Amino acid sequence: MIKVTLVGTGTVSKHLLRVFSKTDGIHVVQMISSRGDALSKALQTTLRNDNIAQVTEQPDLYIIAVSDDAIAAVSKQFTNSKKLIVHTSGSVSMAVLPREIRSGIFYPLQTFSKGREVDFKTIPICIEADNAEDLELLRTLAESISEAIYEVSSDQRKSLHLAAVFVNNFTNHLFQIGNEICQENDLSFDILKPLIAETIEKISSLTPTDAQTGPAKRNDSKTIERQLGELKNKTHKEVYRVLTKSIKENFNKP
Ligand SMILES: NC(=O)c1ccc[n+]([C@@H]2O[C@H](COP(=O)([O-])OP(=O)(O)OC[C@H]3O[C@@H](n4cnc5c(N)ncnc54)[C@H](OP(=O)(O)O)[C@@H]3O)[C@@H](O)[C@H]2O)c1
Predict the structure, then answer these.
(1) For ligand 1, mutation pick of 32, 33, 67 (most atoms within 8 Å of CB)
(2) pLDDT tens-digit profile of 194-204?
(3) Which one of 126, 152, 178 terminates a domain?
(4) Does 187 share its domain with 172?
(5) What distance separates the 2 farthest-apart alpha carbons in the chain?
(6) What is the C-alpha separation between 59 and 57, in angstroms, rounded?
(7) What is the pTM of this model?
(8) What is the CATH number of the domain that holds 191?
């Protein structure tokens, strides 16, 4: 049985609580707020959960799932702990955790939102630890909820997170711009959904380069100029220009 205390009561922490609570071999000892005066007096979770036992029980590890900028400060409260302390961020180095502690990373590479359940079995979990024993503990924990475990260094994880910003955050923002253009022209965004679905679907069998289509790839300059003229929002124009340039460079057509 692996005993876990979750630190922070935000989105990732709640998703972890949900999946750990229904997994054999994992016991959530406690979920505590990162903003308590001191951890000894930390707030009990406001979430009702049968798997959260009395606070007196000691965890095998603490998972700090707080905002990236707060990880260093929150983890300082654990300086005297003999337990493994990990954080869940994609872009924060393991080195921000205090030197004195057994530190590690438990980064689930997925986008988590409030009120939307995810299937942890398919979520890649990136792990890292100071020593082999702690890495094994993290591997056992990760394997009990997911089938995709990767041991990656802090530098590799930062690169993965950077790539994730492009494929997830930026892509979603482009959906947002598309939605705005539809709304401005009295069109339903639903009409674009099969196109979005195929864009995602074909990436499982084609490379992104092979999957690329559109005026920038074809170098259809008249279409590009006309579409730039149609855009009213200055920032959207800029986004269109930069992405067009990037696609052209990829196909050697500067
Ligand atoms: N959301 C995702 O899709 C996702 C995916 C993978 C990894 N992550 C990583 O997981 C971590 C948590 O992300 P999240 O999306 O769960 O964030 P979130 O929902 O915004 O929750 C962040 C939590 O951080 C704590 N916090 C915020 N500011 C603080 C401060 N100044 N001092 C102390 N604690 C503070 C709060 O904890 P209390 O509730 O205790 O006050 C808050 O609940 C981040 O490192 C993030 O990079 C997120």
Answers:
(1) 67
(2) 999 999 999 99
(3) 152
(4) yes
(5) 70
(6) 7
(7) 0.86
(8) 1.10.1040.20
